[in-house]
Design brief:
This protein is of the alpha/beta class and about 600 residues long. The protein has 17 helices and 27 strands. The strands form six sheets. The protein has a nine-stranded mixed sheet, with helices on both faces. Strands 4-3-5-6-8-7 form a six-stranded mixed sheet, sandwiched between helices. Strands 18-19-21-22 form a four-stranded antiparallel sheet, with no helix packed on it. The protein starts with 19 loop residues before the first helix and ends with a helix. One of its GO terms (molecular function) is CoA-ligase activity.
Length: about 600
């Protein structure tokens, strides 16, 4: 059986001679770039309404690059970490660093100090950009990592809400821990500086690393994925081609992006989905991006109405809210004409309800991962999406389904999904073994997901072969939680698997083998049992980001099943987990009857 080809298979020349800001900011014309309203805003702050047009963006990027260069001497190949919620200046910082040839590593702003410390060390970050809210954690991580002094930390926004225009852009942020430069102070300094750096250029400058984005890959702890400038640029152009963005002859209702369209920027920009699609692709398509620092469901509904949002990039939990929360009906969302759901599967039942609620909205799912610099497949805007499908392969993307025996699957046969295309990331940085397991010869990337392809070209992701859990669309490595549980003095061994959750997709459930003395206490007293369970859940909650918490609970077992080499037999743990979920459901039904 030959490899599966995209519905649009005409080769397209993806540029290798541009960096991301050169591609996004320096040229207003491209054959696949939809037209934009004259003087339209590119970025708008959701709550304040403050906005940047292209000229202001270019100036802020340039002045910030000069300010960073003068103070820290940043050069090509240096790494800077961004540890912040969405901010109007978040992309400004990214593009300024790219102008200098630096590499950007975006971190989850909910990370604990130990998780951030791990990322700072893994990337050898030289600078750390953070928000006022995240500053205490950032300081603790930087101190623990012993990487750099507080003078290498830059704050996005003031500590307190501004009471006057002057306070919107303080020259520095003063805290108990010291005084910190702000992004605005560096931009202000940049106005007084002449050009003090040479922007990297050349025929293959696009091959240089733009991002070190973290993912758990198919197994184990988070790994730094090296994403080149050309990977992101290619994915933006591939999706534009897929959406027939500038094709002549289309009716307005069939055109993906129209002048004046606006998109909700509620996805976190540190996440590959938000970074590539919700930020760079949206701006490339001529839309205004409304930047939301933090997700709040009712605020999102109000913002959709206030900014006349036409496009939504969202995740399954947000769709569940739109469908199930009665306040949705209080808002007129009839102007929304596009919604893409990604980062985790959406059930057929919820999809049907969502489509029924918004019949004029074109909606469907897509599939991708950090290792593929986001999109591999997605529904086509001009066609009715197939319920449960992750859509069609985007242009210049090839898929292969590999069965357990190593043979290549035919249509309708499940197996592990392999993909290749110009958007594939380069490797796992400084991790040869993991790279060889996932990034295969001839450009193939093993996704670790079980999938099948229909004769109509629809990709269905049916299960995950890899160990990684998807909680609210975020990757959770069981090995990370297991390693953390095992160092607790109560724990002798541990295994973690996911259980289904209607809202979060799946949540971690911990199987724990207790130390003999603790096990004896637990067996002798129900209250002691609950006390120890609570202690272990708190142990995780106090040290891990929220989506890694043991929402599925803790179960005590005599032993964690393993093979002769010591590898956890997760299939057996999943079987036990299903039995536990079933017993819980039965207990709930009994309570309801009583």
């Amino acid at each position: 059986m030959p490899d599966f080809l995209p519905h649009h298979s005409v080769p397209y020349p993806f540029p290798r001679d541009l960096t991301i800001p050169q591609f996004i900011l320096d040229s207003d014309t491209h054959p696949l770039r939809p037209s934009r309203l004259a003087n339209s805003k590119w970025l708008v702050d959701d709550m304040s309404g403050r906005a940047y047009g292209i000229e202001e963006i270019r100036e802020r990027v340039e002045r910030l690059a000069r300010g960073i260069r003068e103070r820290w001497g940043v050069r090509p190949g240096d790494v800077a970490c961004l540890y912040s919620a969405n901010d109007l200046d978040y992309p400004i910082v990214i593009w300024a660093l790219h102008r200098l040839g630096a590499i950007v590593s975006c971190a989850n702003p909910s990370y604990t100090h130990s998780e951030l410390e791990y990322q700072l060390k893994a990337t050898s970050s030289k600078l750390l950009f953070t928000s006022s809210a995240s500053l205490p954690t950032a300081l603790k991580a930087a101190s623990s990592a012993a990487l750099f002094a507080p003078s290498n930390i830059i704050v996005f926004s003031p500590v307190l809400p501004p009471r006057s225009p002057a306070e919107c852009f303080p020259a520095s942020v003063q805290t108990e821990q010291g005084e910190f430069a702000t992004v605005q102070s560096l931009i202000d300094r940049g106005w007084d500086l002449v050009q003090n750096y040479v922007e990297p250029r050349g025929e293959i400058i696009g091959d240089s690393i733009a991002f070190l984005s973290f993912s758990s890959g198919t197994t184990g702890l988070p790994k730094a994925i090296a994403i080149a400038h050309r990977n992101l640029i290619a994915n933006v152009l591939q999706v534009a081609m897929h959406e027939r963005a500038t094709e002549r002859g289309l009716r307005d209702e069939d055109r993906f992006a129209l002048p004046g369209d606006a998109c909700m920027g509620v996805l976190p920009m540190y996440h590959i989905y938000g970074l590539v699609m919700n930020l760079h692709f949206v701006l490339f398509c001529g839309m205004t991006l409304v930047v939301c620092p933090k997700f709040n469901f009712q605020n999102m509904l109000a913002s959709i109405v206030r900014h006349h949002i036409t496009h939504l990039y969202i995740v399954p939990p947000q769709v569940v809210m739109l469908v199930n929360n009665p306040i949705t009906k209080q808002y007129d969302l009839g102007h929304v004409r596009f919604a893409m759901v990604g980062a985790a599967p959406l059930s057929k039942e919820v999809t049907e309800k969502f489509k029924a609620m918004f019949p004029r909205m074109r909606m469907g799912q897509g599939y991708g991962m950090t290792e593929t610099c986001t999109i591999v497949s997605k529904f086509l805007f001009q066609q009715e999406s197939v319920n449960g499908s992750a859509g069609l392969l985007i242009p210049d993307t090839i898929a292969r389904i590999v069965k357990e025996d190593g043979s290549v699957a035919d249509y309708g046969e499940p197996g592990e999904l392999w993909v290749k295309g110009p958007q594939m990331a380069l490797c796992y940085a400084n991790n040869k073994k993991a790279t060889e397991e996932t990034f295969l010869p001839e450009g193939w990337v093993r996704t670790g997901d079980e999938a099948l392809m229909t004769k109509e070209g629809n990709l269905f992701v049916v299960d995950r072969l890899k160990e990684i859990l998807k909680v609210n669309g975020y990757q959770v490595a069981p090995a990370e939680l297991e390693g953390h549980l095992i160092v607790h003095p109560y724990v002798q061994d541990a295994g973690v698997v996911g259980i289904l959750d209607e809202y979060k997709g799946e949540v971690p459930l911990g199987f724990v083998v207790l130390e003999p003395s603790v096990a004896k206490r637990v067996h002798s007293s129900p209250s002691e049992l609950e006390k120890v369970k609570s202690e272990l859940k708190k142990w995780v909650a106090d040290n891990k980001v929220r989506y890694k918490h043991l929402y599925g609970g803790v179960e005590f077992v005599e032993a964690v099943p393993k093979n002769p080499s010591g590898k956890i037999l997760r299939r057996l743990l999943r079987d036990q987990a299903r039995e536990i979920v079933s017993r819980r459901a039965e207990r709930e039904q009994t309570k309801a009857r009583l």
